[in-house]
Input
Amino acid sequence: MCGIVGIYDHKEASTLTYLCLYALQHRGQEAGGIVSWDGNRSFVEKGVGLVSDVFGNKGTLDRLPGKMSIGHNRYSTHGGSGKQNIQPFLYNFQNSSISISHNGNLINLKETKRHLEEMGAIFQTTSDTEFIIHLFSHSEKDSFEEKMLDAFRKVRGAFSVVMMHDDKMIVARDRHGLRPLSIGKLDDSYIFVSETCALDLIGAEYIRDIRPGEMLILDENGKRSFNIARENKKHCIFEYVYFSRPDSHIFGNSVDKIRRKLGKTLALEKPVSGGDIVISVPDSSNTAAVGFSQRSEARFEIGLIRNHYVGRTFICPTQAVRDFSVKLKFNTIRGVLENRKVVIVDDSIVRGTTLKKLVRMIKKANPKEIHIRISSPPVKYPCYYGMDFPSEEELIANQKSLDEIREHLGVDSLEYLSVEGLLSSTQMPKENFCTACFTKNYIEERKEEESL
Ligand code: 5GP
Ligand code: SF4
Ligand code: MG
Output
């Protein structure tokens, strides 16, 4: 998963890119980068860490001049976490400059790679994103637009991308619209962002989403829209469950509204009779927990406190303190939990490690009973489209039954939201969503294990 930004025609393009990346920090905390274009050449700044670590030092943004820029927050799911894999990627190609930021995972690349290498392509990274550039540069079509369309038509899987090619900006989304991508305007400038919360931060007005299967080109001739492929909506439903920020609007709806509805539906489907309090695992399940409490007798309480200043790079002292990683992040409020029948609402269980440690911690606060409710169905299958879901072996719901998971966690009850409940909570046609990690209904067959 990643966050992407494009700013077209604004005198403070790189500063706006920085601010938008800051608002999209939740989509990737591993690394960040910005490429700018000043009308003659490209400039690039990249680094490991949070956006403020990479760009917050005085002078960094001054090295990114120009009225056009793109940015990227990295959350590595593919191609390893090496420095050469930090985006945006920047290439020089036939005396021109081309750069790209990509959110999503491409699939079925082996054959394409063989073909491209036969034509002389030399891959510089282990990232799937590079394929779009090679397919463009090796395209036999005549015009720039057709070469770009050719490249996007030849890849499969998930892509929301912003690119620059000298004075042009190119913005595109796969035909399923798997990952979000919105258009905003600030005065006469166009702003492209993964989520609308970034538009709010810079005071830009939301215009619309890039349509699934749409490519936009912006240059001195204006803004032109092209069709990559016929739209076949399959939005990632996990964006609503966990990934997107609740203050964003994605896929045509408010994340807060749908996430709250997930909690409400869960409370109706899997109630806890006689529960005293509902708590969330901050921050990811706050909204769903509020929704749950609105449809149950139990009141919403804050029983877990999260330390927000835990960076990704914190090195855990191995074995020194049990459950140290979770203790760094959370602590309990004993007065809230003691002697209460506690309902914990969490958004998802992936490997099951977080909740297991949390339950151990919560038990020390002496609650009467612990009931867990999950505002999504069991995650049983890997995601090929960019979410960090590991192999089947690592997914606890693939390996254990509901009862075994409950026992493993050591709680009084455990229930998940049903797939029907998940889909009905969106109040949109259910065919519009990908649910493969819950249902195994993949959008397209994955031909091979990718090892590029
Ligand atoms: P696990 O069960 O693997 O210990 O962690 C599940 C928790 O991590 C959930 O509470 C959820 O908020 C969060 N989570 C869900 N999906 C992802 C993901 O793709 N990446 C990360 N880092 N966390 C996730
Ligand atoms: Fe989203 Fe799950 Fe589909 Fe991946 S498999 S795109 S996480 S719904
Ligand atoms: Mg969580």
